[in-house]
Write a structure and sequence with these properties.
With 156 residues, this protein is α+β, with helices and mostly antiparallel strands. The chain has 2 domains: 58 residues, Ribosomal Protein S5, domain 2 (2-Layer Sandwich), CATH 3.30.230; 83 residues, Alpha-Beta Plaits (2-Layer Sandwich), CATH 3.30.70. It has 5 helices and 4 strands, in the order H-H-E-H-E-E-H-E-H. A hairpin with a 4-residue loop joins strand 2 and strand 3. Helix 1 packs across helix 2. The two termini are 31 Å apart.
Length: 156
Amino acid sequence: LLPAVEKGVHQALEEGAISGNPIKDLEVTVYDGKYHAVDSKEIAFVIAGKKAFLDAVNNAAPIVLEPIVQMELYIPTSSVGDVSGDLSGNRGLIEGTEPEANNFTILRAKAPVNELQDYARRLRSLTGGEGTFNMTLSHYEPAPPNVQNRVCDDTI
């Protein structure tokens, strides 16, 4: 009984409930179940475990989380306004700037990965080819409703 239910729950975790992406960092507790020596088949418990899990997740009003990256950009000081505007216009949050030698500035920001597709090309265009950047994963946060809807619609 329990191994089959666990198998169903693991299948649901891997397939996700709303976006087709795996569900992580979750604990599942089985409170009750009945087994009949003649009528109980493993596949029935796999299906029941999966269905019970998905029902519970959907009743919990799940949300899509999106990855947010910490960015550090090395850009010409003359490009700070354009680069800041581009990042802000793409849901980025400017955290600060630090002047460097030779008319360059370090700009620190956080932004959703989803908004940084082809960012190297955009930065080259904004800085005349002189800007560089690096980014590392910072955290995950709830995606705005329009992004959640788009992610969920893409999986249907």
